[in-house]
Amino acid sequence: MASFELTDTAESWPVISTEDLHRDDWVVALRADTITTPDGGDGFRRLAVEHPGAAMVMAVDDHERVHVQTQYRHPVQQRLVELPAGLCDVPGEDPLEVARRELLEEAALEATDWTHLLSTWSSPGLTNERMFIYLARGLSAGDRGDFLLEHEEASLTMAWVPYDELLAAVLDGQVADGPVVQAVLAYAARRDELRP
């Protein structure tokens, strides 16, 4: 049996042609690429959603409670239980800085202790979106300044829930937002190591 390296590796197959199907002044675009295999086989079409990535924060207080919020998400037509998160829409910005900003803007919280939990590709067969997930501790109230919650964010509801209840809700399928599930399970795997 050939050796197998258990790691993702960078690789790019030849692009024969590309066509923008949707592109405007927002951060997400849709294109169709015709690609071929490295040995030059017949071309085939793949759709790609261009996305700048996002950062998400699992804020856990000294009582092992997690700051959660609910937000309406139109594509799935549901109000989902989520964690503070936002787009990496400033070119070159460190995802940790995005996480800090989103925690302050959405939750009016600041943190002194940050741990990178994991980074994942959201749906690599369709989009280049990468989600950077952080654990935040050492929490205190923060000032949003003049930032205003708009659109769906204006209807955010927020709560502090015991981590074990959130984990149970994830395992029961009651909380199903992919990055939230990943954050909660990553913390479960590393909880003993990450507790203060």
Structure summarized in a few sentences:
With about 200 residues, this protein is α+β, with helices and mostly antiparallel strands. The protein is about 20% helix and about 40% strand.
Write the layout of secondary structure elements.
Elements: E1 15-22, E2 29-35, E3 44-50, E4 54-59, E5 65-73, E6 78-82, E7 85-87, H1 95-107, E8 109-121, E9 130-141, E10 157-162, H2 163-171, H3 178-194
Parallel strand pairs: 4-9
Antiparallel strand pairs: 1-2, 2-3, 4-7, 5-6, 5-10, 8-9
Characterization of the model:
With 196 residues, the protein is an alpha+beta fold. The chain has two domains: 36 residues, no CATH class; 141 residues, Nucleoside Triphosphate Pyrophosphohydrolase. Helix content is 20%, strand content 39%. The protein has a four-stranded mixed β-sheet. Strands 1-2-3 form a three-stranded antiparallel β-sheet, with no helix packed on it. Strand 8 and strand 9 form a beta hairpin. The chain starts with 14 loop residues before the first strand and ends with a helix. 23% of the residues are buried.
